[in-house]
Design brief:
The protein has eight helices and twelve strands. The protein has 296 residues and is α+β, with helices and mostly antiparallel strands. Strand 7 and strand 8 form a beta hairpin. It binds aspartic acid (ASP).
Amino acid sequence: MNWSTPMDDPRWSIVVHGGARTITARDQAANRAGCLAAARIGAEILAQGGSALDAVEQVVRHLEDDPTFNAGSGSVPTCEGAVETDAAMMDGSTLAIGAVAALSGVRNPVSVARLLLPEQTVLLAGSGAIEFARSRGVEEYDLPASAAADGEHDTVGCVAIDREGRIAVGTSTGGLPGQLPGRVGDAPIPGCGFYADNEAGGVAISGDGESILRVLLATRVIDALKVEEAPNAVSRALRQLSRVGGEAGIIAIDCKGRFGIDHNSEHFAVALAASWLPDGVAGVHLDEVKGYLTRG
Ligand code: ASP
């Protein structure tokens, strides 16, 4: 497949993550492959002139359906054995946000978040989120507690900019393994686990939710994107996490479509694709992809 577009065509780019954590050698190939397959789904939509919102939703749905990742069907259980998911979508053109928290019984929580985008309500939790999903015809689905739960947390996320310069972001997670029922992390909280603003860029984050919440990590990335390029902006923001400790991985795209990726976790599963990269590229560590960040 060749996603390159003629030089005079407006550019697009997309970056995907499958979680910031330690990824065992055995699982690294599945993490790379899962992220790359998802990025390619988004790339195809963007290359055909589709919207960043459509690309991000389809990418996150794909990751939710891949049991490699702690989201959707791969979600880890709470201490009571139930599955509670968090997800969000944001439209950087309008600053519309749709987010769901502690949502059970839905296969693709990101699509419930998308359904909330045009609504006045930003965030729905628990039974309210379930009721909303049902009222919109979302099918009931008994999410299995992931057999792959290995004591590690993670989250999936995607940031994209389309040919019209519209930026969108999506996140989805099963949260922390053994978390308290009702515990909500950073993934559905704007300014913490995600944000998108066409005038600055878009960001999605994985890692220790309580630390990310305390420093408003996504807000710090957006503020940095206003004054510097994406690769430097994410690193500057990540350094702020040292004030509270904890691990995180950050993906971002600035309003010119350039990538920013950084993490202080041992691994961070990512994939990126762009109109100027003829094929996608994936890695489980920044070193594997950093040669592609400054191109374009
Ligand atoms: N940030 C997620 C949470 O705290 C988990 C993760 O990304 O690893 O729920």
